[in-house]
Design goal:
The chain is of the alpha/beta class. It contains 13 helices and 16 strands.
Length: 440
């Protein structure tokens, strides 16, 4: 295991209390979703005894029965985890029996646009009630810089134990990319920032069992900022190409070809591509945490605010383009039959979090179009609580609908055939370049 250090480790991690050797679990993971479950799987694969804690009894019952609810973890993976001793719980008593606790709970946006840390504080209180000397606690939930030190640490220290003296506390940003078969948890470097050098050393030693490379940040704030920087970088650059796509259309420039050509430069450029919007938990959500923190000190993060405005506008732009396409064919959007293909936030996953398909469908409904959808990973889809009809025969559907909008380019779709068979096709992914197909 390779460790890249930002600062000297200093004191030994062994100074953090007297670690007991009678624990039933070497790891307890709080939150068994897209981040927590792959972590639990990797730990089980290397031989650690793992417990999982989740508030959803359906998730717990399913996992204990050998069924996964996460794209990147198969039922076969869960069966191997169970054989290695993994057990899921809804009762936080299991935390008292774990040497290391990793918090992987959601941090959605609150009504004021900042992070909702309710799940983080609840998890921290649960850990505090079961905390023992010598333990390691790691927060992986994405949040703003200062959360580990200012929110989590005081809650844990209500136990009477002190971080850095009696137990270790660290932050390690999750880097799970659903559907990515090349860069899994083990292959992706793990950033770790500790409250003290000894906390960092203990966290680095733990993650070194699971990943090939551990990168040590100067502290928890730097590790928290690293995660936000990664996703803010993507957010801003996606906004750049989204706005560029709109401008290129007015300038009669093929933006996709321009990006292709620019992407041949072997240095100084990374290609990003336009889309109907940004989705997933990370890109549309995480940069807002940074904006929230910056506003608290009297500043505005103007790049993030502008990127959010541009990316949030893309569904409206897509629907306007769809209306123009229909008008060109002598049809009104009102009453037209529109088929949406791919309603997840990225290709070849079932994850629908923040998918731009939702605002696109909402806008189409507001304009009284008759919408239907197809997605090989989604059997039922609801927008604002109302079901959207699902077609089963894609090719028959594209022939019968007035307009088909490709929102997600799942590998299951025969894209050339879609281009040939659809009455009218609007490709927002830049995948079907042939006469008669409109490309974003």
């Amino acid at each position: 295991m390779q460790v890249e250090k930002a600062v000297p480790l200093g004191e030994s991690s062994a100074s953090l209390g007297d670690e007991e050797q009678t624990d039933s679990f070497e790891l307890a993971v709080i939150g068994l979703g897209y981040v927590g479950l792959p972590l639990a799987r990797e730990a089980s694969l290397v031989g650690l005894r793992v417990a999982g804690l989740d508030l959803d009894p359906r998730v717990v019952e399913g996992l204990n029965a050998g069924h996964s609810h996460v794209d990147d973890v198969s039922d076969e993976d869960v069966a191997r985890m169970r054989a290695a001793g993994f057990t899921a719980y809804t009762d936080d008593k299991c935390l008292a029996r774990a040497q290391t606790v990793v918090i992987c709970v959601p941090t959605p946006l609150s009504e004021d646009g900042g992070p909702d840390l309710g799940a983080v504080t609840s998890a921290a209180r649960a850990v505090a009630g079961r905390l023992r000397r010598g333990r390691l606690v790691v927060l992986e939930s994405t949040t703003y810089p200062g959360t580990t030190e200012e929110i989590v640490r005081p809650l844990l220290e209500e136990s009477g134990l002190r971080a850095g003296d009696d137990f270790a506390l660290a932050f390690s940003p999750e880097r799970i990319d659903p559907g990515n078969t090349t860069h899994g948890l083990r292959q992706t470097p793990k950033v770790v920032g500790g409250c003290t050098p000894s906390c960092a050393a203990k966290a680095a030693a733990f993650y070194g069992k699971l990943v090939d490379t551990v990168v040590q940040a100067k502290g928890t704030r730097e590790a928290e900022m690293a995660k936000l920087l990664e996703n803010t970088y993507r957010h801003v650059n996606i906004a750049l190409v989204n706005e560029l796509a709109i401008l290129c259309r007015e300038l009669h420039v093929d933006v996709w070809d321009a990006i292709r050509c620019a992407g041949t430069k072997p240095f100084g450029f990374q290609p990003f591509r336009p889309s109907a919007g940004v989705g997933g938990h990370c890109i549309p959500i995480d940069p807002n945490y940074l904006s929230y923190k910056v506003r608290s000190i009297g500043y505005e993060f103007r790049f993030v605010e502008l990127a959010r405005e541009i990316n949030a506008h893309m569904p409206e732009y897509v629907v306007r383009r769809a209306q123009d396409l229909l008008n060109h064919e002598g049809l009104a959007l009102h009453g037209s039959r529109v088929l949406l293909l791919g309603v997840t936030y990225k290709p070849d996953v079932a994850d629908q979090r923040e998918a731009p398909a939702v605002p696109v469908a909402r806008l189409l409904r507001e304009r009284e179009a008759e919408i239907a959808f197809h997605d090989p990973f989604v059997q039922a889809w609801f927008v604002d609580g109302e079901a959207v009809p699902r077609v089963t025969d894609v090719m028959a559907a594209v022939r019968s609908h007035d307009l088909t909008i490709l929102l997600q380019d799942h590998s299951a779709y025969d894209l050339p055939a879609l281009g040939d068979e659809a009455r009218l096709l609007f490709d927002t992914r830049g995948r079907i370049f042939r006469p008669g197909v409109e490309v974003l």
